[in-house]
Write a structure and sequence with these properties.
Layout lengths: L12 H20 L6 H8 L3 H7 L3 H21 L2 H4 L3 H17 L2 H8 L12 H21 L12 H18 L6 H18 L3 H14 L2
Helix pairs in contact: 4-6, 4-8, 6-8, 6-10, 8-9, 9-10
């Protein structure tokens, strides 16, 4: 079974500074409707040394990668300190992830909406590469646990694609949430539940597996 995630350490001064820079960058974009012209202009405005910016981020693109990865990491950090979460079946763990993830996104809805306005290609370029890596490590651990518990069936050639499929599902949920105008984002909750049901129906034991198993049995005992 996959090892449970350890509780996170308290924030350091460095994390506080990088979070301050990220927050100021989001505020700049929402206030001005565009990226800063240069790092120099940006740090001068937020009263941070340029060298300090480069201690954390090599560019605005690297900063945006970190912001998006931070949405995933904040979700995982919240789940890590929940004793109840640790007792859930894998499907319920992933459901809890999605619900918590949406709560994290709510705090930055305007920025996310602006980012998504860049077009569908934004989902495939480097901006989300770091977030993708963090998420796929997490779901790979979940899938290993689910396979051991029998919630997910290991299938040749297909099982290796499960983490990427769940990443695409996360992108679907994110875009759906951005466009969701229902009260309390009720439609997003429904979309999450339906998407997860489909995923686990496909990854878990089903009629096809029963048929293959029966065929193997008959072949072996003919």
């Amino acid at each position: 079974m996959a090892e449970k995630r350890k509780n996170i350490k308290p924030e350091t001064k460095d994390t506080d500074v990088s979070a301050q820079i990220a927050s100021a960058y989001i505020d700049f974009i929402l206030t001005n409707g565009k990226k800063p012209v240069s790092v120099y202009e940006f740090v001068k405005k937020i009263k941070v040394d340029e060298q300090e910016f480069y201690n954390f981020f090599s560019s605005f693109e690297a900063l945006e990668k970190s912001i998006w990865a931070g949405f995933i990491q904040s979700t995982l950090d919240s789940l890590a300190v929940s004793d109840e979460y640790q007792t859930f079946p894998v499907k319920e763990k992933l459901l809890s992830f999605y619900y918590t993830y949406v709560e994290v996104l709510k705090k930055n809805r305007s920025f996310i909406a602006v980012s998504m306005d860049k077009g569908p290609e934004m989902l495939w370029n480097n901006t989300l590469s770091k977030a993708r890596d963090v998420f796929k490590v997490y779901v790979s651990e979940l899938l290993a646990e689910a396979t051991e518990l029998g919630e997910v069936i290991k299938r040749p050639y297909i099982s290796d694609k499960y983490p990427e499929a769940l990443w695409l599902q996360l992108l679907f949920v994110t875009r759906f949430w951005v466009k969701d105008d229902s009260t309390g984002f009720e439609k997003t909750d429904a979309a999450i539940e339906k998407a997860l049901k489909v995923s686990f129906d496909l990854m878990g034991p089903g009629a096809l597996d029963s048929l293959v198993d029966m065929a193997k049995f008959l072949y072996q005992n003919k």
